[in-house]
Amino acid sequence: MEFLPEGLQEYVEDHSEPESDLLQQINRETHLHVLKPRMLSGHLQGRVLSMLSHMIKPKYILEIGTYTGYAALSMAEGMQPHGKLITIDNNEELSVRSKKYFELSNHSDQIEMLVGNAIDVIPTLKERWDLVFIDADKENYANYFDQVIDQVNTGGFIIADNVLWSGKVFDKNKQDKATESIKGFNEKMHTDSRVQNVLFPIRDGLMILRKI
Questions:
Q1: Which burial class, exposed, middle or buried, applies to 119 when counting CB atoms under 10 A from its CB (0-12, 13-18, 19+)?
Q2: Fewer C-beta within 10 Å: the chain N or C terminus?
Q3: Does residue 195 lie within any of the structural domains?
Q4: Which residue range(s) make up the domain with 194?
Q5: pLDDT by residue (tens digit) across 135-169?
Q6: Cα distances (angstroms) measured from residue 10 to each of 43, 48, 195, 200
Q7: d(CA 32, CA 64)
């Protein structure tokens, strides 16, 4: 998932804004106690999400795929004072951990955690989104985009994580379902006239989309 040499990655992180104490705690405890800790956004990507959120100044944020709450709290840093972040995950066990971290944050009254299948939950939401972060099952990335695009405000942003998929997207020998889904999503985003797109080679790849 890391495309930079280890030393260069450390240099980049050392010269980027540090994590908050709470984010450091989430980072540490996720690596100690949770399966697949590489799914955590981590220091550099978290700071990128925070910076983008500060630039966008969203009132309503939707996150599809919570994991342990690191990305949600990073994006919440740039949210408007009376804004709201809704995050969806189908892992009930992890949701207990995530909610604990949300309650420890300065944004506890602005974050709503929903447990369930995002495909079923998203149509029940009526907000108009300024920022959407997609970081869930790869097979449904294109479906999530189709579900949310009409509810994203003009000029709003959609960010999709893991769009380089550990380099598998440009390896012709990799044809598993998840890889093919990500490749299809990337092509779809590149040709969809409703959005401006740029793929950032940050960590495992961030597709940044602005609704035109």
A1: middle
A2: C
A3: yes
A4: 6-211
A5: 999 999 999 999 999 999 999 999 999 999 999 99
A6: 10, 15, 33, 18
A7: 24
1 belongs to a structural domain: no
Measured in degrees and rounded to the nearest 5, phi and psi for residue 135 equal -155, 60
pLDDT of 144 reads: 98
In sequence order, what are the residues at sequence separation of 6 or more whose Cβ sits closer than 8 angstroms to the Cβ of residue 202? Answer: 44, 45, 48
CATH of the domain at 62: 3.40.50.150
Number of folded domains that form the chain: 1
pLDDT in tens, 35-81: 999 999 999 999 999 999 999 999 999 999 999 999 999 999 999 99
Q: How many residues does the structure list for the chain? A: 212
CA 137 centroid distance within chain: 12
Amino acid at 198: V
Measured CA to CA, the distance from residue 183 to residue 42 in angstroms comes to 24
Q: What one-letter code names the amino acid at 29?
A: E
**Nearest-angstrom CA–CA distance, 75 and 62:** 10
Q: Distance between CA atoms of 41 and 135, rounded to whole angstroms?
A: 10
Q: Quick check: is 121 in a domain?
A: yes
